[in-house]
């Protein structure tokens, strides 16, 4: 059976889980999250800070070249709020791109810096990874590092995302031009032993990423493509809208058979996780005698769905291909700073729930 | 399936399906000269081009499986032309039965190579890790290529350099199976170091990561069975996407590859991004030139796959490539192939459509309205005679250039020019008939300007015909395919619906504008926002001048011109601007025309790409520009207040 087949998750009841669980006196909580412009930076921290008595925080401030003044202002406001919620927290600024040549270097440099900080003052009982305001180039390696370092018989590890597909679709990233595998998630795809494996590319579709997806597709060099469409979703027409948006790519470039769409519940990461594992199992059987099968994931859309992809990639060592963002632009009228209407998703990655 | 939209050569894996799409023209245009000088497989060759210029497609032709597929598939219609071109490049030997002379493999220098530079070790260790990983993967790719080409590994023999027995042993000796195993071990061990989230301390590096491993210095050739003979093929490594390496790392690789001890043929394909800003802004310089003791012309060959010299010659060369490419793509589309419609040039109507009578009347009335009404009858007659005399030649009549609307617009432009060249000091509508300060001329500039003004003022199509399509692509194969793809999709629909096999100028014009807008919207490049701001500013100001009634700059400018000495200060004084310009040039948003002499001075033109001209409605000719200063460039890249891009 797969590790998180019956994983412990919370959706609508995540706030009450936080209130009950983290209020326990024996909880020593380390929150690791993002301290950027994203209005969701403070949502989970605020909920935990309201109930947890022994808590500390490490917040990663992803720095990209030439940020817009408005984004800086928002990031500063979020940092101030986080410092207020987690007195003494550590704000760790990290340059995502090398200053000399613009190469993507943030994740590995961050790991070297953050690793010793995590156990400063002892190993906590609970490590909370709030991925809501971290890019996947940082959040995925962070989860892998924490999972592999503390996973067995260690502290409880919780993943949280505050989800808003509309905001994610509204944020316009400017991408770097080099697709790559997320650090720690290469799945040995570049090794000679995988050279004859039949590749299936599984991109998660989100509007206005045509060029980014085209480049990732070129990079992955997959024989087949199965795009992920959100269904059920809050906007029930979003699958149709995405299909219409990407019609040229789907029919002419990727040649997707209409039977090959993957529908995944937008707010239920384990749904996608289970689907990916089933797909991987089925293809392994079929392609065993023909060089093997390799699923390559590109979770660039909804964050809750990205969690599902993350779990599958962790469990099966699947490669995750993406394009790092050089900068972001917010929609003209961004949502308020801490909207309680946004759903938070929780996954209990390892710990006493599985003992 | 529309192969134009799919960028077929990128996606088709099977060589038999790939080869019909490939035109041999770029081989002849870019490589043949170097093959004649015997440098292609003898020293380091660096091929530089913008994204989509066709570097990777070109490289694929030199891979061993592609070469053998070509030679073994006589039913391919393109086989003779491709074999001739590859023979001219000395990749195929044609003494007797044609056989491959090189065994190429392509190694994309993806992020794991750049990751070597990021490791917390000394520069020597990092360079050695890079070299080991690259060599191990190259050896594996050569062997894989031979298998894919159908050669039995038991019959392949490695020919080592005569004096390299110790190094030969380190790569696995002469046994192909051992060579493969050693390469796999080296790849795995180095990869464990580079791909890990936390690297091991230097004294705990795995054995394969520190072993002496130099196959490039050892391997002289491979011997393979081909038909009834045994062939010696020269191994060729094609390092693609070299621009992703760190600049210092790239310098190290260039120096390594330039060494004569390296026995294998080696190419590096790179985008302009690999160069430093000063090298982009001064392309006659280049990789490694500044190094003492490094003579570029002797140690390496630098091949540019984009225009660096005579615009006319470049455009003619590209039209030839584009025509051949389009023909090959159309042949792969059953709807066109069945009807033998394989010349895109013939499918795109290139004669101007009839001008509506109502619009012509409106235009003719405008000759005597507004400020133009004061031009005296004699002067007006002289201007008409000038225009008629110019348009009177049989050649112009035959080409449709003498159409009544063109004549009327030329007259209107000359009337406006006349009014600019005479004093205007009367308060009343007295007729002006005095001689202008400078004589008026009716020539091709005025005619082109008339066509542009008809486009903007009366909606007469301007962007149509095959040559315009090619010129709009700015000599970039991918851009050509994307623009052409939209036209071909419409043609396909027309043919299916029996609505004719030619695309009308108005439809071409509309579709090209649509596609250009979408291409610019989709364009994803470093410094995107600032590059776009600069392009938009140039476009906006050029458009204003293009639409001046007297067409002071002919069909209109499409560039800003900065005095060359002032432009040359950008790299040192304005590094941010230099990066923006580099990105814009690298992604074909504009090109830099250096040392452009006019008006007694030397200029550097920042010339918008054809796609921008299509989107905004600017001319495609070179030479018309607005005089600007570096400060204007700096102002253009500043964000406007409230700009959230």
Give an account of the 3D structure.
The complex is a heterodimer of chains A (355) and B (645). Chain A is built from eleven helices and 16 strands. By secondary structure, chain A is α/β, with parallel strands linked by helices. Chain A folds into two domains: 8-170 and 333-354, Rossmann fold; 177-323, Rossmann fold, CATH 3.40.50. In chain A, helix 4 runs parallel beside helix 5 (136-150). Chain B is elongated and about 100 Å long. Chain B starts with a helix and ends in an 8-residue tail after the last helix.
Which descriptors would you attach to this protein?
heterodimer, A: alpha/beta, Rossmann fold, 2 domains, three-stranded parallel beta sheet, 16 strands, 35% helix, 22% strand, B: 645 residues, alpha/beta, seven-stranded mixed beta sheet, four-stranded mixed beta sheet, disordered C terminus
Which whole number gives the mean pLDDT of chain B?
88
Poorly predicted parts of chain B: 641-645
Could you give a short account of the major beta sheet of chain B? Answer: 7 strands, mixed
Note the total helix count of chain B. Answer: 33
Main β-sheet, spatial strand arrangement of chain A: 1-16-6-5-2-3-4
- Interface with most residues: A-B, 51 and 46 residues
Structural class assignment of chain B:
alpha/beta
Overall geometric form of chain A: globular
Beta-strand residue fraction of chain A: 15-25%
**Low-confidence runs of at least 5 consecutive residues of chain A:** none
Number-wise, the strands of chain A total 16
């Amino acid at each position: 059976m797969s590790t998180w087949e019956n994983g412990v998750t919370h959706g609508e009841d995540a706030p009450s889980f936080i209130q009950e669980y983290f209020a326990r006196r024996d909880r020593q909580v380390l929150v690791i999250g993002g301290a950027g412009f994203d209005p969701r930076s403070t949502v989970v921290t605020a909920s935990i800070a309201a109930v947890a008595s022994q808590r500390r925080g490490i917040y990663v401030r992803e720095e990209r070249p030439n940020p817009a003044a408005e984004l800086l202002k928002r990031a500063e406001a979020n940092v101030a709020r986080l410092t207020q919620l987690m007195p003494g927290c550590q704000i760790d600024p990290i340059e995502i791109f090398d200053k000399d040549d613009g190469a993507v270097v943030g994740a590995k440099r961050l790991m070297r810096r953050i690793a010793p900080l995590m156990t400063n003052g002892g190993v906590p009982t609970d490590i909370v990874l709030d991925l809501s305001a971290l890019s996947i180039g940082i959040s995925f390696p962070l989860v892998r590092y924490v999972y592999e370092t503390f996973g067995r018989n260690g502290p409880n590890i919780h993943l949280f995302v505050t989800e808003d597909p509309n905001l994610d679709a509204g944020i316009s990233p400017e991408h770097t031009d080099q697709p790559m595998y997320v650090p720690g998630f290469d799945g040995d795809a570049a090794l000679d032993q995988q050279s004859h494996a039949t590749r299936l590319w599984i991109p998660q579709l989100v509007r206005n990423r045509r060029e980014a997806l085209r480049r990732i597709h070129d990079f992955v060099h997959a024989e087949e493509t199965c795009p992920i469409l959100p269904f059920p979703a809050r906007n029930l027409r979003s699958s149709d809208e995405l299909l219409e948006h990407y019609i040229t790519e789907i029919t002419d470039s990727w040649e997707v058979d209409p039977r090959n769409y993957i529908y995944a519940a937008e707010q239920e990461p384990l749904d996608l996780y289970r689907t990916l594992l089933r797909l991987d199992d089925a293809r392994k059987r079929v392609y065993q005698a023909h060089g093997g099968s390799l699923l390559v994931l590109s979770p660039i859309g909804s964050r809750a769905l990205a969690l599902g992809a993350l779990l599958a990639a962790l469990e099966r060592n699947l490669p995750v291909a993406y394009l790092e963002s050089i900068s972001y632009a917010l929609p003209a009228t961004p949502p308020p700073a801490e909207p309680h209407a946004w759903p938070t998703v929780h996954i209990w990655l390892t710990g006493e729930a599985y003992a | 399936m529309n192969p134009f939209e799919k960028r077929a050569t990128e996606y088709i894996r099977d060589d038999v399906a790939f080869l019909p799409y490939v035109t041999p023209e770029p081989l002849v245009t870019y490589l043949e000269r170097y093959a004649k000088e015997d440098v292609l497989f003898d020293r380091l060759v660096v091929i530089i081009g913008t994204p989509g210029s066709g570097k990777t497609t070109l490289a694929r032709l030199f891979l061993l499986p592609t070469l053998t597929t070509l030679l073994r598939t006589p039913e391919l219609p393109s086989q003779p032309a491709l074999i001739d071109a590859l023979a001219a490049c000395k990749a195929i030997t044609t003494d007797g039965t044609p056989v491959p002379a090189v065994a190429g493999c392509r190694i994309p220098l993806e992020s794991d190579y750049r990751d070597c530079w990021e490791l917390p070790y000394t520069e020597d260790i990092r360079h050695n890790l890079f070299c080991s990983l690259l060599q191990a993967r190259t050896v594996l790719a050569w062997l894989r290529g031979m298998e894919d080409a159908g050669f039995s590994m038991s019959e392949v023999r490695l020919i080592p350099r005569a004096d390299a027995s110790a190094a030969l042993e380190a790569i696995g000796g002469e046994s192909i199976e051992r060579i493969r195993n050693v390469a796999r071990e080296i790849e795995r061990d180095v990869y464990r170091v580079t791909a890990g989230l936390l690297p091991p301390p230097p004294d705990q590096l795995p054995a394969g990561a520190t072993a002496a491993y130099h196959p490039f210095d050892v391997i002289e050739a491979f011997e393979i069975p081909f038909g009834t003979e045994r062939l010696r093929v020269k191994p060729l490594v094609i390092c693609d996407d070299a621009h992703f390496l760190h600049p210092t790392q790239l310098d190290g690789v260039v120096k390594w590859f330039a060494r004569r001890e390296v026995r294998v043929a080696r190419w590096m394909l790179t985008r302009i991004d690999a160069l430093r800003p000063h090298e982009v802004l001064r392309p006659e310089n280049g990789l490694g030139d500044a190094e003492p003791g490094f003579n570029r012309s002797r140690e390496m060959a630098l091949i540019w796959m984009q225009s660096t010299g005579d615009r006319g010659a470049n455009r003619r060369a590209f039209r030839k490539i584009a025509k051949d490419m389009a023909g090959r793509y159309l042949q792969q589309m059953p709807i066109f192939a069945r009807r033998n419609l394989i010349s895109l040039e013939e499918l795109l109507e290139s004669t101007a459509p009839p001008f509506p009578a109502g619009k012509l009347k409106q235009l003719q009335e405008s000759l005597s309205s507004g400020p133009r009404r004061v031009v005296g009858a004699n002067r007006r007659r002289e201007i008409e005679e000038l225009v008629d005399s110019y348009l009177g030649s049989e050649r112009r009549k035959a080409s449709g250039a003498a159409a009544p609307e063109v004549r009327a617009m030329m007259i209107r432009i000359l009337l406006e020019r006349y009014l600019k060249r005479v004093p205007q000091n009367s308060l009343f509508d007295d007729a002006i008939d005095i001689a202008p300060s400078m004589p008026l001329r009716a020539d091709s500039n005025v005619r082109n300007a008339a066509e542009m003004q008809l486009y903007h003022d009366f909606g007469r199509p301007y962007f149509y015909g095959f040559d315009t399509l090619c010129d709009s692509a700015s000599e970039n194969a991918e851009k050509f395919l994307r623009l052409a793809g939209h036209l071909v999709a419409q043609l396909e629909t027309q043919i299916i619906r029996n609505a004719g096999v030619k695309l009308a100028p108005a439809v071409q014009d509309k579709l090209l504008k649509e596609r250009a807008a979408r291409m610019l919207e989709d364009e994803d490049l470093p410094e995107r926002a600032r590059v776009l701001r600069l392009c938009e500013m140039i476009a906006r100001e050029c458009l204003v001048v293009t639409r001046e009634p007297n067409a002071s700059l002919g069909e209109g400018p499409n560039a800003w011109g900065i005095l060359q000495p002032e432009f040359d200060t950008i790299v040192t004084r304005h590094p941010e601007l230099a990066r923006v310009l580099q990105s814009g040039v690298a992604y074909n948003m504009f090109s830099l025309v250096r040392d452009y002499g006019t008006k007694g001075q030397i200029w550097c033109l920042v010339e918008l790409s054809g796609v921008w001209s299509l989107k905004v409605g600017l001319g495609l000719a070179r030479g018309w520009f607005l005089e600007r200063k570096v400060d204007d460039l700096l102002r253009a890249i500043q964000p406007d207040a409230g700009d959230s891009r």
